[in-house]
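Field reference: sequence -> structure
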Amino acid sequence: MQSLSIPPNRRPPRLAPPRRDTGRRDPAPSRWAYRAQRLWLTPMFRTALRVGLPIVGVLLVVALIFASADRRAAMAGAFTGLVDSFQQRPEFMVTLLSVDGASPELSDRIRATLALKLPLSSFDIDLTAARARIESIDAVAQAEVRVRSGGLLEVRVTEREPAIIWRRASNLVLLDDTGRRVDDLAFRSERGDLAVIAGEGAERAVPEALEILAAARPILERIRGLVRMGERRWDIVLDRGQRIQLPVEEPVAAVERMIALDEAEDLLDRDVISVDLRIKDRPVLRLAPYALEAVRRARGIDTSGSDL
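Structure field:
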């Protein structure tokens, strides 16, 4: 029988000797332990355990506490009492109200409008609403409201300055230079320094009326007032019942021409009832009846049959 020879470089591998059971625990981790270790090494998982788990626990406790209506009411009452005790501290109490920039009458009206029952906590005062109530007064153009140290509520107002008197059918009204109402006026003599306007829509054209009065300054002492005609134009009424009828367009320029004509011819000192300036460069004069008759006689016109 022929024997087989194995080359030295092709020797069969050595077999490991069988493992003997020595009763000792395998140090290698199990599959679940390995996965748990890998999970613990994840930063997001560690953060969730350190932060998320306590938050969840707190939320559960809070939910259990607020599940009871009695506990909710007790906690709300305790919180309200704490807030009230803080807001009612002496350093937050307002005890004085100061009104600056207003006349005594307006100051009394502001105090009555605010109607604050002092002392009062500054937390209970709505400064924005207080300012809105003050500026709702016609005589107030602007207001500032702030709480000062020492328990002082300071109100600074800017009054509307009356610029003209508006004669209505039932009463007299003071208006500022924009046409905003300032106050009622009992008697015309109380503000003799102001001119009077009348007519439908006169209050909406106050700026133009003031410009006309400024241009008519040389005859201002004779002006009794301005009358709005048809809500379109003005008539100037003088003290002798004379009227200057102004055009719709460029009334100030027409007044300036009228003043120049009067200074040159003493026109308004004559027996003129009205001067119509509505047609540019063609003033029309209306004479008194007796003056017109005198003119006709001077020109040799027979007036015997006239009804003048």
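Note: The chain has a mean pLDDT of 82.
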